[in-house]
Amino acid sequence: MDDCEPEQIIFRTAMLFSKHIFSYKRTRVIFLLAGFSLLSGNILRAQQNNSTQTYAFSLKQAIDYAIQNKPAVKNALLDETIAQKKVNEITGIGLPQLNGSLEFNDFLKLPTSFLPDFISPSIYGVLAKEQLIDPGKVPTGEPALFPVQFGTKYTASAGLTLSQLIFDGSYIVGLKASKTYVDLSRRNTQRTKIETATQVTKAYYTVIVNERRLNLIDANVTRLTKIFSDTKALNEQGFVEKLDVDRLSVTLNSLEIEKQKLQNFIELSRYLLKFQMGMPVDAQLTLTDSISESNFAALTDDKNDYTKRVEYGLLQTQKKLYTLDMQRHKSTYLPSVAAFGSVSTQAQRNEFNFFDSDEKWFQTAVIGGKVSIPIFDGLQKRARIQQSRLNIQKTDNDILNLESAIALDIANSRLMYENATKTLETQRKNMELAQEIVRVTNIKYTEGVGSNLEVVNAEASLKESQTNYFNALYDVIISQVELSRARGTLY
After folding, report:
1. Angle, alpha carbons 16-244-438 (nearest 5°)
2. Most exposed: 7, 347, 448, 468, by fewest CB within 10 Å?
3. What's the confidence (pLDDT) of residue 138?
4. Domain assignment present for 164
5. Distance, CA of 305 to CA of 282 (rounded, Å)
6. What are phi and psi of 82, to 5 degrees?
7. Over the chain (491 residues), what is each successive 10-residue block's mean pLDDT?
8. Minimal CA–CA distance to 211: which of 281, 289, 284?
């Protein structure tokens, strides 16, 4: 029971109440459900100021509502939009890139450079030539260095740069990969929708089955109440013992308690359905669909169509991404070509008069092209290509494994559905037989040829057969949902 889904826990626990069997695990589930009920009550109180909305939904409408409102689906759709924006981002790489720049500098101290002393050797040379000094006294060796400062205190510049990617193989492949990534996001969204539809379907039918069972319990209470009243009247007239009245009273009280508990569980399962739908828990929800054994279709021998399963499509898309990744790495062996151009203007001042129209600004313009040619990268590209190729092989193995898993899932779901329908048929016959026994027993008791104990035992058998029937009915519903999911036809 601990591994069951929430709606299964609710339904199973409701069934267990009718048998009055409380083991450790069952008690633990009850406490968990009680905690969930208290939490739901707190949520209701927190939202008591909001206006209550009323809905009447079929199963299809409930699923459609969940697809529109459940946060998990909303997030999946947002991921899809994010993927599309990623395509726009990558597309922008191949469009012209225009950038502007403004720059202003205030040199608090001008930069200093060192120049060789080219003046002194010239002076000594002239003096020696004019025989004003002894040529032997002219200094020799490397000229000395002396510091100088160039530039102005203020500089300013403004410019525009335009670049255009002409060819890059990795960009072309990357653009294809980004579009495939969008497809992957869409498939993930579809998987989230299928999971949501599965959860809503199970929760929806949990409420329906419990409500049908409540109707039968109401009928049992009505019938037993009449028998109790008649027996009590006979006791007052001295025709039956008080023990007979007490025995019926215990049975009736137990049935009333079971009815109250089932009503609580129906309310709790309705809260769970609203949660799975993304609906406010204080909204009023009425379920318009009904269920009968005629709803269960006969099995057909359809061949396994793996492509209907969203998981299969996800793996195929993943393989395509790995293939594009390998192509991207191969394309890096090709040269890339780009063109560029820029225009700028600059001014240098010792005074801050850049806005003086009489002062000059000096322009510069340049155009050019660039070709990047990969020559040798230490075999990095080769290693990346091998990694992508190995990832493709892994994905092929995953696809084969998924095909086997899908076939097993379908076969197991078919078997579970077949067994569940057979069990349902048997339990239906048992319940009808128990109802007939109760009818005959009541007639015998009314006519004075049957005992009170027979009535009590017949009622207990009927209650047990009804519990078994609704257990079987729920199992058929769940197995049918699982079979549709396994075949990829649920949503």
Report:
1. 55
2. 448
3. 64
4. no
5. 42
6. -60, -40
7. 46 42 36 42 47 88 96 96 94 96 92 78 69 68 76 93 95 93 95 96 95 93 91 87 91 93 95 96 92 68 83 95 95 96 94 87 95 94 96 97 95 94 95 95 87 90 93 93 92 84
8. 289
Residue 367 CB neighbour total at 10 angstroms: 10
Q: Which pLDDT value is given to residue 141?
A: 64
pLDDT, position 305 = 86
- Look at the chain and report how many structural domains it folds into: 1
Nearest to 211 by CA among 260, 274, 266: 266
**Burial profile 111-122: b = 16 or more Cβ within 10 angstroms, e = fewer:** eeeeeeeeeeee
Q: Is residue 241 part of a domain?
A: yes
What range defines the domain where residue 322 resides?
Answer: 6-95+169-338+377-487
CATH assignment at residue 451: 1.20.1600.10
CA–CA dist 460, 454 (Å, integer):
10
- 309 occurs within a structural domain: yes
Residue 121: inside a domain: no
Evaluate the CA torsion angle 99, 105, 111, 113 in order and state its sign: positive
Coil, strand or helix at 214: helix
Q: Can you say how many angstroms the Cα of residue 200 is from the centroid of all Cα atoms in its chain?
A: 15
